[in-house]
Design a protein that fits this description.
- The protein contains 15 helices and 13 strands.
- It is α/β, with parallel strands linked by helices.
- The protein folds into two domains: about 230 residues, Rossmann fold (3-Layer(aba) Sandwich), CATH 3.40.50.2000; about 160 residues, 3-Layer(aba) Sandwich (Rossmann fold).
- A seven-stranded parallel β-sheet has the order 3-2-1-4-5-6-7, with helices on both faces. Strands 10-9-8-11-12-13 form a six-stranded parallel β-sheet, with helices on both faces.
- It is globular, with a radius of gyration of 21 Å.
Amino acid sequence: MRILWLSHFLPHPPTGHGALQRSHNLLREAARRHEVHLVAMAMAESHADHASRSEAVSALESMVASVHTGVPSPDPLRFRRGLHVASAVTGSWSYWERRLWSTALKQKFREVISRGIDVVHVDAIFLVRYLEGLDDVRFVLNHHNVESDLLYKRADLRGSKMRRAFFRNEARKVARLEQYWSPRAQTNLVVSELDGERLRTLVGDVPTTVVANGVDLEYFSASNTASDPQHMAFAGGMDWFPNREAMEYLARELWPALRQDNPARRMTVIGRNPPTALLDAAQRDENLRVLGFVDDVRPHLSSAPIYLCPIRIGGGTRLKILDALAMSRALVSTGLGVEGLDLLDGVHYLRAETSDEFVAQVRRLERDPELRARLAAAGRALVEQNYSWGVIGDALDRAFASSEAVARAPL
């Protein structure tokens, strides 16, 4: 099968943020089975200099049949993002549709289409404008999250009235995109059945296929090097709002409660763009380390036997949780943090929703090495069985194969 893979970023390296990990590994699995042509936006914030872009393109060219890239127009490095925000407020397109639009990329997309493609993999709802006018093109639509649902949740959080109004307006625009384009896809790829239900509630009874998030079991191998049970970790890019809100909550409420209960506790937070509140908390307390982006999270996860996930909003599933489980970390998480994953409270993780509950569960793990070991072993076993990229790649392959037999509404 000849597949055109339309991506909102260059999906390399495979150890970046969650969406990048998912896209890279799904692309790799698809390319093992089919002839894949990548058409990708080269976002400046993902690959800030020419050398890193060239390195990413070179690595991807060794994986797929061809790579074609473009940059946003206008380039956000040369024009203020405020222009995109203003256009989103006054126009019919959402902010991310505008950020990800490139006339040069559209031309490359059409050129690859003209050479003969069996199906287009559209890797985000914000890219569907590239399909306009192509009535005979078959496509599958990937949903990293149900984006309108995530935007509505963000609009409900604290903030200025203007900010909340902006996100509600964005949510309505993205919901209209999902309602129009999801029924026209051969199938909609979702990361969990729960996200499939969310999408069907919004757009009606559309075809969905669960292609879960996964983990590289060789890269994130089981680790037993941690020696201090009072050391915890969290990893996740804080330019993704649910992670950012979780770390603001950690700085404001959770970390002070954990330290008050046990002053010897230490925590390491890894991820790009940490919020000011978290940086300020780390400045005041040497037991809280905020590292920002690192090339390799494994040494930091290996040194912390407990992984905390205090995420309280969002959708989709958390790749960083799968990474931590693959490394045999004992997990304490909110229910939403493990949403969509096959984790059982008390078997694969300990659930906590409030600061007091997090403190109590962390205290249990610190005092009970057998409990830590049991959770760690169960988590590793679960990801080996259900979440290796090979298993996930088989599900993706079935989705592409079934798309050939599914009728859809005309564009």
